[in-house]
Design a protein that fits this description.
Layout (H helix, E strand, L loop, with lengths): L2 H13 L3 E4 L1 H16 L11 E5 L26 H8 L3 E6 L33 H8 L5 E6 L5 H7 L2 E4 L19 E6 L2 H12 L14 E5 L5 H7 L5 E5 L3 H33 L5 H8 L6 H21 L5 E5 L15 H6 L3 H6 L3 E5 L11 E6 L4 H8 L4
Parallel strand pairs: 2-3, 2-4, 7-8, 7-9
Antiparallel strand pairs: 1-3, 4-6, 5-6, 5-10, 9-11, 10-11
Pfam families: Amidase
Protein name: Amidohydrolase
Length: 405
């Protein structure tokens, strides 16, 4: 990796408080390997020489995984997460570990042992979380690609608030080994990018050949259902696709489904997160960030029998959801409920508004892509929509997104 790129990442990392560690040694070693391959006449790999950043809940060999927390070991990781290995094997080069909400537990991005990340679009605007630092480095233009994690919107919501692409694949398609968990029933490794081609190539790499194949929606008339249509800009996005049928997704079946989602998500997430943190929290509760400690504590005392009941309800809900939209190929929703809020405007309802349109698709396990909208007026923050596909249709979703104006 050239010195200029590393210097720019470090500069932006400092300016936006987005970096927990520069991974210069790893970057230099892999750059030397890339140069050697080129000089020996080997063809370039899929992501040859592309710098990427890694949310600091994901292991990179030789570097500590801090989780944005004071409650951690600073021993370097013995192995990298498979998603990192796969990107490196395709020629991508890790340049930084990124700041995040402590243990990924929170959608606002307001609590990290390193302090909160600054939004490159406007420092007064909330970055959202939990993968705030990865979004910021892409938004700042110093890396074209970054890894994050998404349990209730923690890739897509920061992407919306910082004006970049953010993709959550189908649940289970991308390995989560070597990633510190929040709630294993919903955790997904996701991607930030400034260019859809780079994001698509990176998804192909981390998902592996043959996974995420969909129904081939590009081969027939595509049915896109608009949910809570957010004005003309969302419809303008669809004008470049001629073979398109637009319908409304509102209806009793959908309303019932959405009503059923939240309590299932809340119980399972609270139970699983407490089990993850049980031992650490017993020893070091006072060292957690205050809001994160409250979230962990909220899972204490939940019953395993009820947890298993909720897992059964989750499986039934995921099965039932497949029939709700009939022949619809894709959904288009707002990315968040309302505008990007300022840090000084956050209130008790902000988190729910941020997750309003993202969390349901973690519960269902469907792939979803946040797409920034052009043409925000003076004084407006970033605006974005969310494109959602059926489970397993990741590549169809990304292919359709590549055709949007």
């Amino acid at each position: 990796m050239d010195e200029h790129t590393l210097a720019e990442v470090e500069r932006a990392g400092t300016q936006f408080n987005a970096v927990t560690a520069m991974t210069v040694d790893r970057a230099n070693a892999l750059t030397a390997e890339s140069v050697e391959r080129r000089d020996s006449g080997q063809p370039p790999r899929r992501l040859e020489g592309i710098p990427f950043a890694i949310k600091d809940v994901i292991d990179l060999v030789g570097y500590p995984t801090t989780m944005g927390s004071n409650v951690r070991s600073d021993a370097p990781a013995a192995n990298s997460a498979p998603v990192v290995d796969r990107l490196e094997a395709a020629g991508a080069i890790p340049v930084a570990k990124t700041n995040c909400q402590e243990y990924s537990y929170g959608i606002l991005g307001d609590e990290s042992a390193f302090g909160r990340v600054v939004n490159p679009v406007d420092a007064a605007l909330c970055t959202a979380g939990s993968s705030s630092g990865s979004a910021a480095l892409v938004a700042a233009g110093v890396v074209p690609l970054a890894l994050g994690t998404d349990t209730a919107g923690s890739v897509r919501v920061p992407a919306a608030c910082q004006g970049v692409l953010g993709f959550k694949p189908t649940f289970g398609v991308v390995p989560v080994d070597g990633v510190f968990p929040l709630s294993q029933s919903f955790d997904t490794v996701g991607l930030f990018a400034s260019d859809l081609g780079v994001l698509t190539a990176a998804f192909d790499v981390i998902a592996g050949a043959g996974s995420g194949d969909g129904r081939g929606s590009s081969a027939h008339t595509i049915d896109v259902s608009l949910f809570a249509d957010d004005g003309d800009r969302a419809r303008d996005l669809l004008k470049s696709v001629p073979e398109l049928t637009i319908t409304s997704a509102n209806g009793p079946a959908l309303d019932e489904l959405l009503d059923d989602l939240a309590p299932i998500y809340d119980y399972i997430r609270l139970y699983e997160a407490f089990e993850v943190h049980r031992d650490l929290f017993a020893e070091r509760a006072a060292d957690y960030q205050p809001g994160v400690a409250k979230k962990v504590e909220a899972g204490r005392g939940l019953e395993q029998a009820e947890y298993r009941t909720q897992l059964d309800a989750l499986a039934e809900l995921r099965e039932r959801s497949l029939s709700v939209f009939g022949g619809t190929d894709l959904l288009l929703t707002p990315a968040i409920d309302g505008p990007v809020v300022r840090w000084d405007e956050i209130d008790s309802g902000t988190a729910a508004k941020f997750m309003r349109y993202s969390m349901p698709f973690n519960v269902l396990g469907w792939p979803a892509l946040t797409i920034p909208l052009p043409g925000a007026g003076a004084g407006e923050g970033p605006q974005a929509v969310q494109l959602v596909g059926r489970p397993g249709s990741d590549r169809d979703l990304l292919a359709f997104a590549s055709r949007l104006g």
